[in-house]
Amino acid sequence: MSIRISYYPGCSGKGTSSEYETSTTGVCQALDVDLVEIPDWSCCGSTPAHTVNHVLSSALSARNLTLAEQEGFDTVTTPCPSCLSNLKIAEHKMRKESFREAVNELLDQPYGGGVDTKSVLQVLVENVGLDKVRERVKTPLEGLKVACYYGCIMNRPPEVMDFDDHEHPMAMDNLMEAIGAEVIPFPLKVECCGASFGIPQQNIVTTLSGKLLEVAKGLGVDALVTACPLCQMNLDLRQGQINAAQGTQHSLPIFYFTQLMAKAFDLSDAVQGMKRLIVNPQKALAKIGQADKEIA
Amino acid sequence: MRIGVFICHCGSNIAGTVDCAKVADAAKAFPDVVHAEDTMYACSEPGQQGIIDAIHEKNLTGVVVASCTPRMHEPTFRRAVERAGLNKYMFEMANIREHVSWIGKDKELNTNKAIDLVMMAAEKLRHNAPLMAKKFDINKRVLIIGGGVAGIQAALDCAEGGLEVVLVEKTTSIGGKMAKLDKTFPTVDCSCCILGPKMVDVAQHPNITLYAHAEVEEVNGYIGNFEIRIKQKTTYVDWEKCTGCGLCMEKCPSKKSYDHFNNGVGTTTAINIPFPQAIPKKAKIDAEYCRMFTKGKCGVCAKVCPTGAISFEMTDTEVTENVGAIVAATGYDLFDHAKYPEYGAGKYPDVITSIQYERLMSASGPTSGHIKRPSDGKEPKNVVFIQCVGSRDKSVNRPYCSGFCCMYTAKQAILTKDHIPDSRSFVFYMDIRSPGKDYDEFVRRSIEQYDTQYIRGRVSLIYPQGDKMIVRGADTLAGAQVEVEADLVVLAVGAESAAGAPQLAEKLRISYDSYGFYMESHPKLKPVETNTAGVFLAGACQGPKDIPSSVGQGSAAAAKVLSLFSKDQLESDPQIALVNASRCIGCYKCVETCPFGAVKEEQDRFNNPKARVIETICQGCGVCTVTCPQSAIQLQHFTDNQILAEVKALCPSMMVKN
Amino acid sequence: MPVYDGKELRIVGFLCNWCSYGGADTAGVARFHQATDLRIIRVPCSGRIDPLFILKAFQGGAAGVLVSGCHPRDCHYAEGNYYARRRLELLKRFLPVTGIDPERFEYTWVSASEGPRWQHVVQTFTDRIHKLGPAPLLSEPLTDAEMVEFQRQVEAGRGCGCHI
Prior knowledge:
The complex is a heterotrimer of chains A (296), B (658) and C (164).
Chain A: E1 3-7, H1 18-30, E2 33-37, H2 46-52, H3 54-70, E3 75-78, H4 81-93, H5 97-106, E4 116-119, H6 120-128, H7 130-136, E5 145-149, H8 158-161, H9 171-178, E6 182-183, H10 202-218, E7 223-226, H11 229-236, H12 239-246, E8 254-256, H13 257-265, H14 268-272, H15 282-286
Parallel strand pairs in A: 1-2, 1-3, 3-4, 5-6, 5-7, 7-8
Chain B: E1 3-8, H1 20-27, E2 33-39, H2 45-58, E3 62-67, H3 70-83, E4 91-95, H4 97-101, H5 107-126, E5 135-137, E6 141-145, H6 149-160, E7 164-168, E8 183-184, E9 189-190, H7 191-204, E10 208-211, E11 214-222, E12 225-232, H8 247-251, E13 257-258, E14 267-268, E15 271-272, E16 284-285, H9 291-294, H10 300-304, E17 317-323, E18 325-328, E19 332-334, E20 351-353, H11 354-361, E21 382-389, H12 405-419, E22 424-429, H13 439-448, E23 453-456, E24 459-465, E25 468-475, E26 480-486, E27 488-493, E28 495-497, H14 501-508, E29 535-537, H15 547-564, E30 569-571, E31 577-579, H16 589-593, E32 599-603, E33 609-613, H17 623-627, E34 633-635, H18 640-650
Parallel strand pairs in B: 1-2, 1-3, 3-4, 6-7, 6-18, 7-10, 18-29, 20-27, 21-22, 21-27, 22-23
Antiparallel strand pairs in B: 5-30, 8-9, 11-12, 12-17, 13-14, 15-16, 19-28, 24-25, 25-26, 31-34, 32-33
Chain C: E1 11-16, H1 20-29, E2 38-43, H2 51-59, E3 64-69, H3 80-98, E4 105-109, H4 115-132, H5 144-155
Helix pairs in contact in C: 1-4
Pfam family, one (chain A): CCG
GO molecular function, one term (chain A): oxidoreductase activity
Protein name (chain A): Heterodisulfide reductase subunit B
């Protein structure tokens, strides 16, 4: 039974995290999830908008929800936790009539309300189910030790996000286990990576993300698995900066969870994206006998 | 009826703002009032004598006193009219002090109001009828549920007072939580050394019958005459034969059984005696781990037992005991910290609970009193204590303070230093709550003499790094985030009501709060009574309590039982519901609504269904009276007619033109 | 007794013995000044209060009726006030049907320790009733002269006087 769902890729997916985007679409296709991209989608409002103007920020999200609504969908899915957070919070706030009216003032077409947003992770765990994921696995990732890092906003605030435990989420852990990886419990799985402070105040990111890498290293994992383009960027792209700032020598690959799923599903196109990772994943992949010359 | 009215001046308390003489004058005009006077202090000796004399001289058959609140002196005046030969229920009070003179200054309005109140009282009195308290025999035996320190104290006090005591304990040994503790605050004396002798006294006292590893199944009856069904759970060991020699424990091959007494610190054998001082010192087989039950073969214990006490076929049995009073002393359980995922939810071996730490420190514990951390057996140097785990936290539905954690944490910090002199203890706390004799001094000692570092703030996360646990929290006094590297983290878990407490409360027909703690009759003045007559409370089943308070309550409950049993017969309060059988249609709505199960379904001699009130159970709330479609069941002394008489006195139907 | 014209209105209170009557006592002991209109009838439990008592009071000319019991969960009789709450809520919704302004009726919960709360309850309820004024008469009452004539005829053995 296939699932048809409205899809909001978000700006990162079309740019810095295109490997997340390709692996997400690939994995969803493999699991009979039909992602219908919202036509003419626009920015969700992300980091800067809501710090300046709540109504404007929500209007940006609401525009996309309205477009999905017009296509006849009641649920939107997005791979990016930032987009997820904005879309969900906008919907949540607009349940208050006065706020919805203020937002609708700014929109060409008013938002009717009631469009739910789910992360791709949530769709895979709740709508597709771990059993189906297990069935689809071609090459189990046996021998690969990973820790799952959810980031700070995937499950927070709990009353809005309404998915998994906000202090101790397990969705990604279970998913990784389903594709055969050995999952080591990661105590800092919902800690902050420093987020967008990488631009104005880099030392915050090097300290916080440095801590994540330090603890992950202590656990003896081969890789960290993320679900967030910004977390991935901080941990992967900035790993060199972290090493320089902290005097460490980390070389820990940072995968998107969809990349590892693609790997287990033998989706060669999607696996291609691993080339784009900054920290070379070859050593980790060698663990599962999958070192790939193409990727290198 | 010949009514006498007495208006009390209460010195100037009433007379200051009420014209008492005018009230008395007005009262003379009320129906059936044959005598009215004002008096200086009605409750004083001459005042009471004045009432008695008037009853004799004027042949009064009913008395109204207008004075203070009936909650104060109703019993006093009732005794006075009884001394004069009247039934004590032929008396009414008008509250003209708390409800009149003390709340208004306008003398005219006050006087008018006082006259109204006296009229209401007189009108009600005209509908009063003499009520007789019934007497009934009582069974002078007492059931005590729970063999912790509160139950032990209650049992010993009752037994010493000459009562036969039935003590029911859920586990295989009495002693409760106190038996698990290493030392006690603030004296730091050995817990088992002070409790042990009391436990032995229980075992040896001729008046005490102990049912260990047993539970109360059913409670029937009422004050003075309860019938209790007790389930004696199977132990697979014949306790008549078991001598407690412990040979079976030595030979049992299943050595990885969960150790309940040590709260999972270390393991024990499938057949075990929980601890050396156990009372009764008898073995029990844990069927979950015993190879005979899990694999179907073994029987080593049966072979080695010198008295042949092992019986794998043994089943639960039941006993019935008749008692006259019940003391619930079921104690508390500790909060399950798995609800705190940020503290590891129980998955880090070196994050343990305070009771587990007690067992680690105890000389009779699994490590013989050497503090070794569970993961690698190393002696910890940095120990972090986190307070209020499951206390004062709305997010886990435990908004209350457990009361004793601040103190036991201070004690554990002191003991840590005693055990490991080069160790350091850190305590994350919200507020230090140490009211009690020598309590705050004890905490200061922990801080000042034992160098315990107290950090005011909550812990947000515990995570492992190498072989350390990193404890991240806020230091709200310094306004900074702090991280402490710990070798061992001890969670000061709070108290919650014992598992199964609400179910037992329902059997006992007592109320409990939303957390499962039993409700006392009055939070200040009746702390060990319940709203069900004959059922008393002792210890932490009523709310978190430390040892001195629990012992105090155990004795208090025993004193209540002893004073209850000091009479051979009990008098029932006649202000209870009564069924007029000729009006009763047997709909049994009253049976359904009675909060106490005091109304029983019966049949009259023509087999018509009728309700009957059991006088000793009825508490006199009157919910049934309002429920009855036939007005057949009436709360005596507060009948429909009596209350309506008061209403009519205030709001007489008006004469109107047609 | 006559209600003091212009100064007082007839307000009847039904209070449970254990909480609210105690609360009123506590307010008295603390000398919390209150309006004098209220006359309190003590019952063991708010669950003892038959809604018909309240209607009887209104029928007899009460300008307001106030009921107060233990806070929910705090009932001395475990659950009497739950019964009261249902009955009284139902009565409140039913009052308009009878032609009685439901604003003239209120029920509340006051514990024995809540003296200040009791003072507040009495004061606000009394103020409210004073704003509403005396209870509207169901029919015109007899004048004093007619009352005297009525009594004279009754005394003269002329029956009940319903048809004078």
